[in-house]
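dumping this here so i dont lose it again. seq + smiles for pyridoxal-5'-phosphate
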Amino acid sequence: MSIGTKDIIVEKVKTSKIDKVDFDNLTFGSVFTDHMLVCSYKNGAWETPKVVPYQPITLDPSSKIFHYGQSIFEGMKAYKDENGEVFLFRPLENFKRLNISAERMCIPNLPQEYFMDGLTTLLNLDKKFIPTKEGSSLYIRPFMFASGNGFHASPADEYKFIIACAPSGAYFSGKVKVLIEEKYSRSANGGVGFAKTGGNYAGQFYPTQLAVKKGYNQVIWTDDTNHEFIEEAGAMNIFVRINNTLLTGPTSDRILDGITRKSILDIAKDQGIKTEIRKITVKEVVEAAKDGTLKEMFGAGTAAVISPISSFGYRDTDYELPELENSFGKRLKKIITDIQYNKSEDKYGWRFKVTE
Ligand SMILES: *Cc1c(COP(=O)(O)O)cnc(C)c1O
């Protein structure tokens, strides 16, 4: 089955909301563009995607999404360069991961053209919403959920795939204080930690709130068995620099395969930065903090690219990280964002031009 961009049904808004958007004071993901993409799955097949005015969706109270949480999402961004051309960063990776999440949650796979053509049609229509201020972008949220009805605890027979977009300002996380979590777990062996599915994030809220009450911003997740290994930073992958080696854990059932994470690993290697993908113990990080060999820790994900950690708490002690001039995090972030905003050559072939 193949569709072309021209097959997508487009219903445009009568009046644009663009004048109501305060581009000087954008936050993250709270104002939306004029249109959204909607695609329905019925009778065993995905129907032709439609671009329609951004609007609420009506669901039956027995829709399975409400009861059994069959729901997945992706997070990506569109970037505008100085000439007004629009780019995505490795969008096929998001598409592939969407289907990996779908499979785990018993949601039907989406064809690649529906995702790519739907997305590019939507972005070309709403490109005036993509902010141009340094560091700002259009946050894109593709998601899929069970819209089929019935209280029976089984996979639904109907689904919706939607893409909604939100112009967003530069992400300044400030100094992030994290707490190494030893009681609660984000994910488990054989579980759904590798999937971007709603329940993973709902389950994080409570332990994160407890950490916030203690004065931290975020939780560092450790393995569910013995809380011995460092796994993720909130909803980001985690990197630790000990001396001049950049470490990150291997992806698994429990650790999400982040696109930022793998891009950082490729760039770091090219930059001559020594990287190691291996399990990182809490013990070695605490010891490195004590003897001064712990140089940097940062989270990695689409929203912030790199989010530097200023200190971490572990069993009633806080450990400060140094302020580095030659930080790996800063250097890697600059290289990635220069590719994203079409400011540098893209030898990796990661940049994807959206504008026709
Ligand atoms: C989305 C996500 C990441 C980062 O993935 P990117 O593809 O880099 O945005 C990391 N960890 C978790 C738990 C996530 O949900």
